């Protein structure tokens, strides 16, 4: 027994002294705090809106998420890999060029999304017979555009400089502000319009706050340009310089976002808005538990590219460890979430949302296998093989969307559960096996 205790103590000390683990823990604490705020707000919104209005809100959010895929985190994660290298070399000119490129491509992406948002009411009318859903989606799209510009700059800068506490504060502010204002406006009696308008007001505040944070970072770290230099660089930088790498990485990252947004959108085509609420809450509940894995993936975006340059053997070893540890954690988180779901839904959401509980149990395979995919995106980017990832996911979606529509039409919400499980599980397993073989060949 003593030997077991000492072994556990040594393992704990090893993890505690490891910089990556400490940073992950810090980011997880902050992310968990923001997630708790979002969860509480989500519960209160569900109680206030009830199944029908929550279903309308969910469909609007899904449409907006799909429309705005080309903005935000996809670009941010793509540029982070480039920015990490230039910052490590203290290359001020290259850092300025990369950030200028990020600002410029975000601007053009925002224009494209804004134009497309004008068609959302018509799309919503064709899909769901309600153009108002498209109007709500357009408001959320504008919020996404506003929150993207300086947020992505500050996010990337904090990430590559190792300012994990500042990054954590930024994430918490983003998560809490928009959802909190949505709740306030719904409580004021504005319904779904209030819920989406809260995101818009929060995004405007975040736009200003992120700009101020980036300015403050420049004062502390001379490698970064000031806003004037950034705008000048954005005007002069050629999109061709980094577009090849960034486009494929952003497309790969947004494939994951598409996987998340499409299930709710497709479900709404064949079931009532109230039933959409039941599936959306079950899916969101499981993903809430799995969100604790998010900070690991964020930090790997910088860690894996560094290891790819410094130590390829260690890269393969760490990829296996992270994937297996994350798999074990996702199994634990999902099983725990499923076990407590009947009590959790009754206490938090109320009797009207108890029909969601069976679908939570149905998503157990999806949640359990989810962890093996935590390191996939960062690894694809680190070894510059994102085109393979895009190909795999494109084939899965190409076959999976028609299959999913048939499943939903035939089996209702259980069809949605089966669709989600098949999409994610097949994608993660194929990608994981491919990468393991690829890394072993390189180190062989």
Short description:
The protein is an all-alpha fold and 444 residues long. 89% of the residues lie in helices and 0% in strands.
The helix-strand sequence is: HHHHHHHHHHHHHHHHH
Overall pLDDT confidence: 83
Q: Uncertain spans, ≥5 residues at pLDDT below 50?
A: 1-9, 11-17
Main beta sheet strand tally, sense and closure: none
Name the beta content range.
under 5%
- As an assembly, this protein is single chain
Number of strands: 0
How many angstroms separate the termini?
40 Å
Number of H- or I-type helical stretches: 17
Helix residue percentage? over 70%
Q: What does the overall shape look like?
A: globular
Derived from helix and strand composition plus strand pairing, the structural class reads: mainly alpha
Q: For the CA atoms, what is the radius of gyration?
A: 22 Å
């Amino acid at each position: 027994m003593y030997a077991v205790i000492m072994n556990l103590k040594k393992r704990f000390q090893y993890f505690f002294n490891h910089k990556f683990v400490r940073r992950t823990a810090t980011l997880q604490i902050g992310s968990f705090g923001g997630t708790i705020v979002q969860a509480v707000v989500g519960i209160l919104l569900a109680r206030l809106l009830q199944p029908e209005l929550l279903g309308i809100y969910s469909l609007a959010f899904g449409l907006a998420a799909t429309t705005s895929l080309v903005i935000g985190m996809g670009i941010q994660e793509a540029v982070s890999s480039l920015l990490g290298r230039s910052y490590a070399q203290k290359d001020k000119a290259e850092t300025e060029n990369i950030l200028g490129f990020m600002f410029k491509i975000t601007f053009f992406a925002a224009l494209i999304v804004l134009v497309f948002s004008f068609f959302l009411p018509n799309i919503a009318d064709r899909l769901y017979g309600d153009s108002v859903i498209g109007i709500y989606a357009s408001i959320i799209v504008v919020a996404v555009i506003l929150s993207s510009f300086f947020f992505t700059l500050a996010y990337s800068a904090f990430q590559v400089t190792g300012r994990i506490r500042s990054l954590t504060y930024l994430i918490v502010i983003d998560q809490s502000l928009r959802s909190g204002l949505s709740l306030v406006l719904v409580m004021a009696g504005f319904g779904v319009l209030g819920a989406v308008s809260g995101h818009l007001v929060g995004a405007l505040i975040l736009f200003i706050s992120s700009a101020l944070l980036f300015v403050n970072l420049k004062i502390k770290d001379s490698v970064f340009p000031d806003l004037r230099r950034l705008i000048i660089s954005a005007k002069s930088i050629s999109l061709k310089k980094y577009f090849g790498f960034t486009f494929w990485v952003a497309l790969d990252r947004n494939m994951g976002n598409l996987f998340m947004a499409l299930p709710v959108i497709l479900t709404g085509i064949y079931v009532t808005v109230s039933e959409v609420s039941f599936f959306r809450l079950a899916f969101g509940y499981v993903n809430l538990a799995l969100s604790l894995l998010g900070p690991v993936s964020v930090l790997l975006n910088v860690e894996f590219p560094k290891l790819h340059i410094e130590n390829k053997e260690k890269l393969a070893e760490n990829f296996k460890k992270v994937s297996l540890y994350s798999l074990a954690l996702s199994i634990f988180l999902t099983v725990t979430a499923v076990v407590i779901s009947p009590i959790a839904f009754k206490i938090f959401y109320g009797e009207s949302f108890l029909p969601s509980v069976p679908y939570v149990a149905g998503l157990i395979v999806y949640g359990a296998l989810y962890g093996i995919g935590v390191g996939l995106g960062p690894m694809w980017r680190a070894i510059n093989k994102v085109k393979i990832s895009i190909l795999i996911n494109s084939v899965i979606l190409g076959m999976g969307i028609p299959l999913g529509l048939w499943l939903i039409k035939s089996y209702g919400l259980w069809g949605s559960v089966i669709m989600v499980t098949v999409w994610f599980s097949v994608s993660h397993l194929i990608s994981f096996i491919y990468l393991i073989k690829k890394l072993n060949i390189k180190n062989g």
